[in-house]
Design a protein that fits this description.
By secondary structure, the protein is an all-alpha fold. The protein has two helices and no strands. The chain has a domain of 28 residues. It is flat and about 40 Å long.
Length: 54
């Protein structure tokens, strides 16, 4: 497995964890989507910050 594939798998798992927690709470779909977008934005921002230092 190449390094890029490994990183992509880790990123996917990091995104799935908070989304599965939101789904387990059984919130209304609109709230879940809003929270999921917020988590995606946080994840994207964190990725950009980490990438800028490497």
């Amino acid at each position: 497995m190449s390094d890029d594939v490994g990183q992509a798998l880790i990123y996917a798992l990091l995104l799935i964890l908070p989304l599965s927690a939101l789904a387990a709470r059984r919130l209304p779909l609109s709230t879940t989507v809003r929270y999921a977008l917020a988590w995606g934005a946080i994840f994207l921002l964190a990725t950009i910050v980490v990438a800028s230092f490497t």
